[in-house]
Design a protein that fits this description.
Blueprint (H helix, E strand, L loop, with lengths): L1 H16 L18 H22 L2 H20 L13 H19 L2 H15 L10 E6 L2 E2 L5 E9 L11 E4 L2 E4 L2 E2 L3 E7 L12 E12 L12 E12 L5 E20 L3 E4 L5 E8 L2 H5 L3 E15 L6 E9 L3 E8 L9 E26 L4 E5 L5 E7 L4 E4 L4 E2 L3 E5 L3 E6 L6
Parallel strand pairs: 2-9
Antiparallel strand pairs: 1-3, 3-7, 4-5, 4-8, 6-7, 8-9, 10-16, 10-18, 11-16, 12-15, 13-16, 14-15, 17-22, 18-19, 20-21, 21-22
Length: about 425
C-alpha cells in the first residue's frame, strides 16, 4: 500500500515540475528511482515557481503557504543529509514518511485552492516540528511587505519565523541580491529585516512587476551538543526568493451606478365618432372623451391645452348649416366638445361626424447608468457612496487584468474592494489597513 502511495505522489510531483520518472524495461514506473534529495530539490524548484505566481496574482495566502513549505524543504535537506542520495526503497520507515509528506505538501500547494493552501500551511508547521534538529534549524513563516513601492528608495523586507539560535554580529543573516550582500539590520529569535536599495530591484515599469532573485542565508548552530565558542559548528540555511517592485501605477477603476431621473411621456387619445344629422330638426349636443381607468392607473392625464376635435362634413357649410360651439367642460381625466347642426327646408341641412382628441401626458421615473473613472495609485484608499439600486465596479490592473464585481468583495493583495449597503471602498497595496 505504501509503495502505491509513493508511486502516485511521485507521478504527481513529476507532473508538477516536468520530471520524467525512470521506467523499467517493461515500461512500469520505478517507484524508488528518485532519490530523497531529488524529491526535495524538485519540491524547492516548484515552490519557487509558486511563490512567483502567487506574487504576480497578489495571493498572500498562497505566498505564505509556499514560504512555509520552502522552509520545511530546506530544513529537511539538513535533517536527512545522510539519506539524500538514497532512493525510496533504501529509506527507513520514518524517512519514507517524510518522503511522501514532502510530496503531498507540494501537491497541495500546486492545487492552489484556498482549502488546499490552508492544509499545506498547517501541514508545513506540523512537519517542521517533527523534523530532526527542528529545535535548532531556522523556520521561516512569512515575509513582508510583498512588494516595494515604486517611489521608495529603500525596501525594508522583514522575515518572520523561529530562529532559536540567533548569533551575534559576527554571524548575521545575509541577503544576496545581484552579487551584493546585505546584512540583517534587525535579528532576534522571531524575526529579521534587511534594507535593500529599491533601484537594485530593477527599473520601474508601467505594466509589470519587476523582480530580482535573492538568497537569504540564516546562520544556525549545527554542533551536536550546542557548544559555544570555537567548538561550535556554524551552518547557514539558504532560502531563495524573488523580491518585487511595483509598477508606477496600479491601474484604473470604473464605478457604474444607476441614477434616477424623471421623463415626461406624451401620447394622443381619441374618442369614438359621433354623428349629428339635422335632416328632420336642429340638433346641438355635447360629447366627452373620458380617460379609461387603465390610463388613469398608469398615470396618464389630459393636457387641458391639448384638447381638439376632428370633423367629417357630410352635408352643409360651417356657420350656416353646422356650428362649432367649442371646448366645454375639461378636467385632467375628461374633455368635452359641443357641436350644432340645423335643418333647412329650402337648402342643405347640417350633417357631420365629429370626435374629440386629446394630448395625454405622464411623468415616468426611470434610471440610467452613471459611470465614474479614477486612476488607481498605490498605497491609497478611496470610498464611494452608493445610491439605491444596482452597481458594479470594474478594476483594470496595470497589466491588463480585469475584475468586475457587483455586491461582492475582492481580496487580491494588490487591490481590495470592500462593499457595504452604503458605500464601496477600494484600496491598493500599501494603504493603511489594506
Amino acid at each position: 500500500m505504501m509503495r502505491w502511495r509513493v508511486l502516485l505522489a511521485s507521478l504527481c510531483l513529476a507532473g508538477m515540475v516536468g520530471v520524467v520518472i525512470p521506467k523499467t524495461s517493461h515500461g512500469t514506473p520505478q517507484i524508488g528511482a528518485l532519490t530523497f534529495g531529488a524529491v526535495l530539490q524538485l519540491g524547492l524548484s516548484k515552490v519557487s515557481d509558486l511563490i512567483r505566481e502567487a506574487q504576480e496574482a497578489g495571493r498572500v495566502v498562497a505566498i505564505t503557504a509556499a514560504v512555509q513549505a520552502q522552509s520545511v524543504l530546506v530544513s529537511a535537506q539538513v535533517a536527512y543529509e545522510a539519506s539524500l542520495k538514497k532512493t525510496f526503497d533504501e529509506l527507513n520507515e520514518s524517512e519514507r514518511k517524510a518522503f511522501t509528506d514532502m510530496q503531498s505538501l507540494v501537491a497541495d500547494l500546486t492545487a492552489g485552492t484556498d482549502e488546499a493552501l490552508a492544509k499545506a500551511s498547517k501541514d508545513a508547521r506540523l512537519i517542521a516540528n517533527t523534523l530532526p534538529f527542528h529545535g535548532r534549524h531556522p523556520q521561516l513563516v512569512s515575509y513582508a511587505p510583498l512588494y516595494a513601492q515604486p517611489d521608495a528608495e529603500v525596501y525594508r523586507v522583514r522575515f518572520e519565523g523561529n530562529f532559536p539560535f540567533a548569533f551575534d554580529a559576527r554571524a548575521l543573516p545575509t541577503l544576496v541580491l545581484s552579487t551584493k550582500s546585505h546584512e540583517a539590520l534587525l535579528y532576534d529569535n522571531l524575526g529579521l529585516a534587511f534594507d535593500v536599495p529599491a533601484r537594485d530591484l530593477g527599473d520601474l515599469s508601467d505594466d509589470r512587476i519587476v523582480r530580482k532573485p535573492v538568497t537569504v542565508e540564516i546562520p544556525w548552530n549545527a554542533s551536536r551538543w550546542y557548544q559555544v565558542g570555537p567548538l561550535r559548528r556554524l551552518a547557514r540555511a539558504r532560502y531563495a526568493f524573488e523580491l518585487a517592485r511595483l509598477p508606477r501605477g496600479a491601474g484604473k477603476l470604473t464605478l457604474i451606478t444607476t441614477e434616477p431621473y424623471s421623463e415626461i411621456e406624451t401620447q394622443r387619445r381619441e374618442s369614438e365618432w359621433w354623428t349629428l344629422d339635422s335632416g328632420q330638426d336642429d340638433k346641438e349636443e355635447t360629447h366627452c372623451l373620458d380617460l379609461s381607468e387603465a390610463d388613469q392607473r398608469a398615470g396618464w392625464r389630459i393636457v387641458r391645452t391639448g384638447v381638439g376635435r376632428d370633423v367629417h362634413v357630410i352635408e352643409g357649410e360651417q356657420n350656416s348649416d353646422w356650428y362649432d360651439r367649442g371646448q366645454q367642460e375639461t378636467s385632467d381625466t375628461k374633455a368635452c366638445w359641443r357641436m350644432r347642426t340645423e335643418h333647412h327646408a329650402w337648402d342643405d341641412d347640417g350633417k357631420i361626424r365629429f370626435r374629440v382628441h386629446v394630448e395625454v401626458r405622464r411623468e415616468v421615473d426611470r434610471t440610467r447608468p452613471k459611470s465614474h473613472t479614477d486612476v488607481l495609485t498605490w498605497a491609497t484608499s478611496r470610498s464611494y457612496s452608493l445610491p439605491p439600486g444596482e452597481w458594479k465596479i470594474r478594476i483594470q490592473l496595470f497589466d491588463g487584468r480585469e475584475y468586475e464585481l457587483s455586491r461582492s468583495e475582492l481580496t487580491n493583495e494588490l487591490v481590495k474592494v470592500r462593499a457595504t449597503a452604503r458605500d464601496v471602498t477600494v484600496s491598493t497595496f500599501g494603504a493603511p489597513g489594506h
